């Protein structure tokens, strides 16, 4: 199947279908990783305040723009950050957004996407955070707003809120062949929410899977490339992470082959609910939607 290079979100903005994630990227390496990623062709950077490397990631974008300002434009890069639990609630969220805007002010007056990082606070704080996000979106300081790790019940709470004005464009959750979240995928499709798949490489924990290795040999691609291609063909915006500069280009080199639908289904395990992320391990059912 043809995989688009971008998706158009409910906000009207376009999001590249593959990103480089900087979760756990060391602070002193983030600038170099982001800069190199942009050099090899990535145009989507996924960061978060809790990662402690947001400013360094933005510095990588700035470095890329500076080296060729005629061709390397800020508007060609889609930058995401997230508001974590300690900064949720209306006033705290506004302060958090201002910190991110301060970090990015040298290259732009806006952030492309801001997500509520987790629903693990309480209703008032979640909705207060959304109120702040809506205000900044209406002011043009955030182009698109969304959520991360939300199940259907958290989204239903948002849709039912009397202050609800701007629908979430994105829900970023862990998705891969061993964590299909079929109910949440169906719900999101019905609501027009684009799903972003974090940990599409399952943090390397499934690289020895027999089916994965069988397909790797069949297509002449690395296990990582098979998993990224699987995610793209499922219609997800895909966020592979690597701290290895050499693997950046390899992970992006996934648009020149296609998995058959039979092989997409073959690799998918609907009986598995394997969670690799630390965030969801406490309650594996919480974010199943």
From TrEMBL:
Q: Which PROSITE patterns match?
A: ALDOKETO_REDUCTASE_3 (PS00063)
Q: Which Pfam families match?
A: Aldo_ket_red
Q: Which GO terms describe its molecular function?
A: oxidoreductase activity, acting on the CH-OH group of donors, NAD or NADP as acceptor
Record has Protease as a keyword: no
What InterPro entries would the database entry show? Answer: AKR (IPR020471), Aldo/ket_reductase_CS (IPR018170), NAD(P)_OxRdtase_dom_sf (IPR036812), NADP_OxRdtase_dom (IPR023210)
Keywords (A to Z) from UniProt: Oxidoreductase
Q: Where is the active site?
A: 51 (proton donor)
Site (Lowers pKa of active site Tyr) found at 82
The entry marks the following residues as binding substrate, namely 117
Per its UniProt record, what Gene3D superfamilies does this chain match? Answer: NADP-dependent oxidoreductase domain
Q: What is this protein called?
A: Aldo-keto reductase family 1 member
Q: Which organism is it from?
A: Wickerhamomyces ciferrii (strain ATCC 14091 / BCRC 22168 / CBS 111 / JCM 3599 / NBRC 0793 / NRRL Y-1031 F-60-10)
């Amino acid at each position: 199947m043809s995989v688009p290079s971008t998706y158009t979100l409910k906000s009207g903005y376009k999001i590249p279908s593959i990103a480089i994630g900087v979760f756990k990227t060391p602070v002193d390496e983030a600038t170099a990783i982001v800069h190199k990623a942009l050099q090899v062709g990535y145009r989507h950077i996924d960061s978060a305040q809790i990662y402690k490397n947001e400013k360094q990631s933005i510095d990588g974008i700035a470095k890329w723009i500076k080296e060729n300002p005629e061709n390397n434009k800020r508007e060609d890069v889609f930058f995401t950050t997230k508001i974590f639990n300690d900064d949720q609630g209306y006033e705290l969220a506004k302060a958090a957004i201002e910190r991110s805007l301060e970090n990015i002010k040298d290259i732009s007056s806006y952030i492309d996407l801001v997500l509520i990082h987790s629903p693990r606070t309480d209703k008032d704080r979640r909705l207060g955070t959304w109120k702040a996000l809506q205000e900044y979106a209406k002011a043009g300081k955030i182009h698109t707003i969304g959520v991360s790790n939300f199940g259907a019940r958290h989204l239903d709470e948002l849709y039912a809120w009397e202050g609800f004005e701007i629908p979430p464009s994105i829900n970023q959750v862990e998705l891969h062949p061993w964590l299909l979240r079929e109910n949440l995928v169906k719900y999101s499709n019905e609501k027009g929410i684009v799903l972003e798949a974090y940990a599409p490489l399952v943090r390397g924990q499934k690289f020895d899977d027999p089916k994965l290795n069988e397909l790797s040999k069949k297509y002449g691609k690395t296990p990582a490339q098979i998993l990224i291609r699987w995610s793209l063909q499922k219609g997800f915006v895909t966020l592979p992470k690597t701290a290895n500069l050499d693997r950046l280009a390899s992970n992006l080199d996934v648009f020149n082959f296609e998995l058959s639908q039979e092989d997409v289904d073959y690799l998918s395990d609907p009986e598995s609910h394997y969670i690799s992320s630390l965030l969801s391990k406490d309650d594996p059912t919480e974010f199943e939607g």
